Amino acid sequence: MSKSVTSVTEESAYGYGIPLFDTRVNLYQGGVLAVLLVSLVTVPVWAPPWAYLFALANIWAIFAASWDIISGHTNYISFGHSFISGAAAYTTALLTFNVNPDMAIYITFPLSVIVAVVAALVFALPSLRLSGPYFSLLTFVSVLVATKAVFIFSTYTNGEMGISTVSVLTFDTTMLFYYTLVPAVIITGALLYISRSNVGKVLKAIGQNEAAVEAAGLDTTRFKLWGFVYSAIPMGIGGALLAHFYGNVEPIAFLIVDRSIEIIAIAAVGGMGTILGPAGAAYLFLFLRDEVFKAFLGPNARWVAIWSVVLVLLVLSPQGVLKRLWTFLGNLGGDSS
Amino acid sequence: MTSADTPLEVENLRKEFGGLVAVDDLSFEVNSNEILGFIGPNGAGKSTVFNCIMGVLSPTDGSVYLHSDEITGQDTHETVNQGLARVSQESNPFEEMTVEDNIRIFAVSNSPFAFSSNDDEEVIRSLARRMGLEDELGTLPDSLPHAGRRRLEIAKALATEPDILLLDEPFAGMNQAEIRDLSEEIRGFRDEGITLVVVDHNMRGLMQLVDRVIVLNEGRKLADGTPEEVADDERVQSAYLAGEV
User: Nearest CA of chain A to the CA of B242: how many Å?
Assistant: First the structure.
């Protein structure tokens, strides 16, 4: 029997806890995961010039994993997640720009996360009762409305130029990397826990057959709503982090729909519904976009290159490249067990 | 209204689709702890009646009572949590989930904060044992034989801890031995205090199993009585092609 197929005995070995993965992690999977994690944690040591890029990727890993817990699980595809992170970033920015430039981060940060969750719910509450496409449309509209609002209320938002009164976390790129790595690891771990829990399984079941989940006596609307909250909280944290990462909050880097599409693309390449896949793909995506393609193709052509790569990867492996690699590693060694 | 003796009651139920009347002023009650056969030719409106009871469809008119509470048109999950479960005609498991997780979805509590529960593990294992699926817990539903998929559907419904179970064409596609086993299983449910409604399009498999039969034809109740009474009823015989009953 192949290792990727759990037998009953293996099943009962972890049956009373929350397994970290769908199946037992074999030697190859564990080894690759350990090497990648150690490499990530030591980026500032072995590649100091990349510390800034990987710090940014930490935040994008948060975004991709957060998107995945609702959309990757329930198949309610959100096109509006940059609206949630943008709401958090703009809350931080607006408070420092319009209220008090010295407002402490321990006040602005939690406030920003709360505003992000509330903003997310304003759009989620009416749309989660609707079926998939309407949900997608409404989330899409939320980004368009929010982007326009930034320009309409440019007296407060400073329009396209953005707000640069936000304090930068640190100018030490090594510290910046770890300030973003710690929340990324905690959030990915927490989302992985939810994903593997009963709640995560219900969300996945909703993605496969919502009517059957209703027949199980479960209030699917309530599960979707809380799934959205479990997604919005880390999106808010990521958005506020990003505000302090750049120190300047403007629509292009924080809000426009392109950012939402990037989150979806990253999650799809990583493997929807796996949490670790989308988080890992964020590093791959940003490394290709901001390092490899930027060096060879320049700041504009790199976009064509990265989207072409995404297209090819999705055609070759619709289930997600990282998920496929993970399964491949899981099948190595085969019948030897 | 229902009482302790009639936990499920349907009153003047009517369902129209456009100009078509699928269920026409139907009233019946289910007695506590009986096995009720609910039969009728294809297209008689059986599935529509049960879709209305379960809240999948909203009735055009009429009421449904469960344990004295009106449940007409309420969300399916509420009805299920009040003790009414249905095993639908077609097996529709979550194909990407193992047999274990398929049962789990029906066993977990209706709370987005209940991340894990050891009670569920016990329930899943005992139900799997009972339905002969204990060796299949780690496999995908796709690799189960037809009868196994049907048994999985029943295990899922039982995981919601129903006191009334609606079985929609449970014997479809089964051979004689499988029908016999499942009939035995259904009697076992009754012995544990579960009230059962078994829907079928003919009475052949039901005669030995049920205590009472309701015959539905063209959306109306045609007959109601013991299997023998109903089988002798001329109106019932003419509703079916000769020899079908």
Answer: 37
